[in-house]
Amino acid sequence: MIWLVSFLSCIWLIGAEAPFNHFVHNPRVVGGHDATPNTWKWQVSLQYDSYGDGSYYHLCGGSIIDAFYIMTAAHCILSLQANQYRVVVGEYNLDKYEGSEQFIRVERIIVHPAWNEDLAKGNDIALLRLANPVQNNGYVEIANLPYPDQVLPHGFTCYITGWGLMDYYGSIPAILQVAPINVVEHEVCSGPNWWGSNALKTMVCAGGDGIISGCQGDSGGPLSCYTDGAWRVHGVVSYGPAGWCNQVTKPTVFTRVSAFEDWIYSIVQ
What we know:
Layout: E1 11-13, E2 33-34, E3 43-48, E4 57-66, E5 69-72, E6 85-89, E7 102-111, E8 126-130, E9 157-162, E10 177-184, H1 186-189, E11 203-206, E12 222-227, E13 230-241, E14 252-256, H2 261-267
Antiparallel strand pairs: 1-13, 2-10, 3-4, 3-6, 4-5, 5-8, 6-7, 7-8, 9-10, 9-12, 10-11, 11-14, 12-13, 13-14
């Protein structure tokens, strides 16, 4: 993939599978379990049609942040042609149509202006403007965001959700997965035995226990944390270690949403 520059010899992109790979289309969180239906209502499946023939497959996760806007990772954007994407909200089992889903075309793609395809530089965030608004059918919800510049304390328990790979061998259950994952503060995550200088203050690290992590297919999805009396999306899944996803001292790294709210609100009116 185009983001695999030199520093990425030790990390991989969590989710943006090559567009010709139609076999790894619905993987899951490592160390997770089936989510309870109709719970993580802001979770989105971002789907991609690489050949322009209407054959969409799950590419990345995302979060509903407005009736017209989805938040995801910039590295999930394989093409700036909006008509190659759709989002599915109210999704649970990617292999079944359950009547809760809404399939909505993407009208416009807005990638953060400072994104330069280098994950170590951060700014891995993008917004998708939808052609039609998300309808409140009881299976969807607009995500709450954290307070601007809010930073979570070390050890705080959040939840990662998605359809990312379950393991190194590529197990691919179709049902949305969820797992509790503990925040690793910046002072620890940026240590030499952790992510070092690749961990920026505009990121959130979580996991690193060798058990629970995000994996390929989870990119762009939410890090949901219960703070200030509500569930809020504090992170956007960005990257993790190469090879085994759940490595000790190599936590999943998220774009820290609270560091980008001025930009988000400048677009989402």
